């Protein structure tokens, strides 16, 4: 039992106080001469001691000290401890009340029917398959429950969880502890030695379970791969946001020695990458559990209303979009015979996509919407709002928000992990009204307090916009519905004079409409939302796009060289 005594205190100014020793103020402690030392970060010569104790605490708190296990007592056990301590000495502790250590389903967990069915099918498929469920419907809980049930069957189990981003390591570790696992994060320079000690203990039979969380990049690397291959007992790989693992740099690192595999994603198929999609489905197996958004709304997710706001490209932007499309069309035919041409084509596709993503009129449109809201309902009516920006565009959004007197902060990759929890807490509490975000909020970050979202960054990749919609649909106390605002980029007003120009305008609309159709389909105001775009599509004879979902558009228009999935190129 770990009985060392030390602690860290921190004030609002960031000053730290560390103590080490016994603070027991009893007669017996005085008789034995017990004492403790105190170190202050601002005192000359003491800051290094404070730093060492703080780092030591962080390693213990995150389960990174191989000599100790850290357990999260569930509420039922807490109540039992309180009940035990309420009696007078000597304590009469019954063996029946000693908690069982090791992976177990939390006592307060009640799996939903679709989660249990998915786990049953996965186990029946020898522990292989995909969970294809809408964002916010409990894929993480189902995966951890499945791991517990698999361990019951095999007796000893090593679990490796692979996640796309480092800020998800702590989130997965926290959830795993609720199921009785002792997770270790593969991060820091000593990761190999720390995890290696745990693996050796596991292989020798000293542990019944092993649980390691890493990023996709680390899991595909040689150091962690060597440890995975050294395990002599049943092993399970849980891949969060599994669609990433179909990328060339990751698919090579998928270990064939791991017998049990579970992939999680609302959208496991990769956009414009059939080869990567095939790799995922061949390796993990077929879908064992699915829950479409339409079935989840109302039961597990919040209903929403959708407002598409038409934003016209400027004449110069449309000229550049069309010229790039002409060049792209010519290069498509030659791309198969030259890798150099393929790289040049990818660059042009990204450049064209950025024209749409950063269209000049989006920011004025956002300003107008916010001013209208503030003028009608006041600035405090804007709360729990996320603005999705294109990379490099959060600064423009923050300037507007500041001019309007709104409390806002960016949430990007540049924000340290240590600050992210604080920002999300301030956002949930209403201290921050708005978060200006980019892709780091797409996957895995839980922000159920979000009530309203503005999509400034246009994308035709359903993986991205489906994930972003899911962020705002999680249920939360006092949240009856969610509101989605979408900046839909359209050609300048008036038809072009030449047929080629009109063709490129159709390409633009064909790229934007899958998102509009998808968002309209499940919205409470779907017919009102469709009316906003209907007249424009009728002019181009493209009304049918409102009836097609993203993958239908992909199949129908992928033959257009100038439609190619520019948003998906470079998908990790």
What does this structure look like?
The chain is α/β, with parallel strands linked by helices and 572 residues long. The chain folds into three domains: 5-84, no CATH class; 113-291, Rossmann fold, CATH 3.40.50.300; 304-312 and 359-559, Rossmann fold. Helices cover 44% and strands 16% of the residues. It has 21 helices and 16 strands. It has helices at residues 27-32, 47-61, 75-85, 113-124, 139-154, 167-178, 191-203, 216-219, 222-230, 248-251, 274-284, 293-296, 315-335, 339-357, 362-377, 394-403, 417-429, 462-472, 499-521, 526-539, 550-557, and strands at 6-10, 16-21, 36-40, 128-133, 157-163, 183-185, 209-215, 235-240, 260-264, 287-291, 304-312, 385-388, 408-411, 434-437, 452-455, 482-490. Helix 17 links the parallel strand 13 and strand 14 (434-437). Helix 4 (113-124) packs across helix 5 (139-154), helix 7 (191-203) packs parallel to helix 9 and helix 19 runs antiparallel to helix 20. The longest helix is centred in the last third of the chain and has 23 residues, at 499-521. The radius of gyration is 27 Å and the shape is globular. The relative contact order is 0.09.
